[in-house]
Amino acid sequence: MADRVVVFVDYQNVYRSARATFHRHESDPHWFGQVNPLLLGRYLAADSPYDRALQEIRIYRGIPSSSRDPRGYSAARKQIDTWSAQDQVSIVARPLRYPSGWPTNHEPGERPQEKGIDVALALDFAVMGLRNEYDVGILMSLDTDLKPALERVAELTRAWGRPRAEVAAWSSRDQHNRRLSISGARLYCHWIDEPAYEAMRDDTNYAG
């Protein structure tokens, strides 16, 4: 029987790191760096010599306020609706937290922030592993706050042989980029290079 694969994606983190790896942030359109979640999930599930089947790809992201940022909210809703129409894609969205006085009287340099996304992702990764809801959990993010969740699943692997935790990261032509790792366990990393990224990128301008 094929191993059940669930992919966990910290979307804003993945988007920003894709831009840093493959694009020029200053000149490329803001939608460059987006990826099609289902294509990403299929790629990661297939990137193995073992018999695996994608069960679910879970996207964790913040969503703008409809009153403070109606254009951003509309674009996010269009993107989420597009994702939700794809089989196997699940969305976990939480409201962004805005600086006091946003958008006209806030302190210079202050930006809306995601709150609770990393906690939701970490909890789901650990709890779903404990409940035997996947055989292989692949986490794509560079957020070190997620390490405890990886460590918890690694403990289950040592005790029972499964589930298995793996990570994913972008890879440029000249070098591998940063990736999540934990002490005391070797986590397999799915390095996604530029040709693979090109096959899964989504250049839709959802704000257009």
Write the layout of secondary structure elements.
Blueprint: E1 3-10, H1 11-22, H2 37-46, E2 52-63, H3 70-84, E3 89-97, E4 113-114, H4 117-130, E5 136-140, H5 147-160, E6 164-170, E7 188-192, H6 194-200
Helix pairs in contact: 2-6, 4-5
Question: Which labels suit this protein?
Answer:
6 helices; 7 strands; alpha/beta; seven-stranded mixed beta sheet; 208 residues; single chain
Concise account of the structure shown:
The chain is an alpha/beta fold.
Molecular structure report:
The structure is a single chain. The protein has 208 residues and is α/β, with parallel strands linked by helices. The chain contains six helices and seven strands. It has a seven-stranded mixed sheet, with helices on both faces. Strand 2 (52-63), helix 3 (70-84) and strand 3 (89-97) form a beta-alpha-beta unit. It is globular.
Structural class: alpha/beta
Q: Give the helix level as a range of percent.
A: 25-40%
Catalogue the unreliable spans: none
Question: Distance between termini?
Answer: 44 Å
Strand order of the largest sheet: 4-3-2-1-5-6-7
Radius of gyration: 17 Å
| Strand segment tally | 7
Strand-residue fraction?
15-25%
Order of helices and strands: EHHEHEEHEHEEH
Anisotropy-based shape:
globular
Mean pLDDT: 91
Main sheet?
A: 7 strands, mixed
Q: Helix segment count?
A: 6
